[in-house]
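Handout, section 4.2: multi-component inputs.
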Amino acid sequence: MNKTYGIIAAFDTTPEIYQACEKVRDAGYTQWDALTPFPVHGLDYAMGLRRSKVPRFSLAGGITGFTVGMGFIAWLGLSEYPLVVGGKPMFSPMFAFPVSYELTILFTAFATIGGMFFLNRLPMHYHPVMKAPQFVRAMDDRFYIVIETNDPKFNATATRDLLVKIGGKDIAELEA
Amino acid sequence: MSAPASTASLANKFLGAGLAGLALTAVGLFVSDPHGVALSYLIGISYWCAIAIGMLLLIIIHHLTDSGWSTVIRRQYEHGVSAFTWLAVLFVPLLLSAWLKPGFIWPWMDLAHPLHGGHGTVGQDVLYVKKAGFLNQGMFTGMTIGFFVIWIGLSALFRKASFTQDRDGDPKWTSLSRRTAAAGVVLTALSLTFASIYWMKSLEYHWFSTMYGVWFFANCVRGALAFAVFITVWLYARGDYKGIYNTNQFHTLVALAFAFVVFWAYVTFSQYFLIWNANVPEETFWYNIREHGDWLWVGMLLLFGHFFVPFLAWLVYRWKAERRPAFIISAWVAVIILVDICYNVLPALKDAHDEPLPFLSINLLWVLTSVVGVGGICVWSYLRSLATTKLIPIRDPRIVESLTHHEAAAPEPGQVVEGAH
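Output:
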């Protein structure tokens, strides 16, 4: 048999998966995930997830966009191609503002999408859970927890026992 | 969940402070420059009208968008708008001055009022004559009465629907309020725009800006949201909101305030930018006089204090979701809105050389007494209303959705009505 990726367990309702996640979290696991057919509000808290790091990418993108806008217009007007338009100064943050503002938004959007892809390691064309036949129901009406073997606390028997204890059904090992 | 604990003694303290502030303002008329005191009183009225209008708008927006999350907070706005009746009463002295002493506050009311620089009088000013159909005492009085009729009327309709639903639980009140809101949004938008034009912009009637009403609207909603933060934090600290109000609702409320920080900056900058770019003397003079003396620094304070400080601070999630930082930033916003209104009103006071009188002057004292005076009455009105109803609209069809905003462990509809948490 190939190397094992992890253990998957099924749950039938949102309260069950919510409470199961709290117990997996409290047991100290870090390398695991919950699969649900729709977003379950508060599940990130039950899983002990911290707030997303995507906003840091957004902020960096925004600052870059604003600086690029202001900097580019200042460089163009002051040095590269000085041109008097409407009796205005060669450079003023006033007329550079609308463009810088738009670039702030544009670069923030790019950085947000890019940061989200980067942090989620997307695009991901293969994931071991896709090999489990029962996984299709994670897109329909069932909820799953997958605990990975590379979790420091993973132990084939103890982890399986935990999943049984918290009410997991159809427990199976996943091929890597 | 019981009715809120008694606020009667607190209400009386605010009433006392309000009456003291009003009395001091009246004294100011005799011991200081009456023109400055009158404009300071106008600032006090406009500031509290802005907050009450903002609360009315938040009720309207809540109903129009059929919102869920804000149901739990809406009741506080319904108490807040009870202040309109008193604001109308407090506006009476200004209306009286328009008839008894025309030109005292708004120079265009006195056709014999001399223009600076020996350019004749208001009556000979072509820029007034063209606007005379709009800028005259009859229109001013009628429109101002109209504004208050609209605000008091809409507030009464929303309050009656919401409070009656507490008793009979009939969902028809919700759909009735939605229809009221549909008509009300147009009436409120128009009335707040014309109010800002008549009360504040017409102090310098040569000037015009199509953004003025939008600027006032932005301040109205920002003020109302700042006070919504104060009220919710206060109710939470008192214990009334324990188990009712959660982090998600608070975060959503402050996120809306954050959005309006950006909106205020957007409209205020557009007004400045279009006038700067077009560079037409009839428009630029308004900003030119605001670059004299210390007004330049007031403008800078607005740029950084009204936009950059709250904008950068509220980029941080924790400062939106936690009560203490959100409260401090909201308090700053509430103060800076007052400075913004001062920036729009006070430079109408000119010295003998047609230069605006400085910002740092005795007039700030009269602004303070007016804001405390009018505000004390408004807060008293809010607290008096608070004591008369349930803390939240317990039988609103969306109350469960609001109480469980973004929470997984949502209680069942039957459980929440009486102390489920």
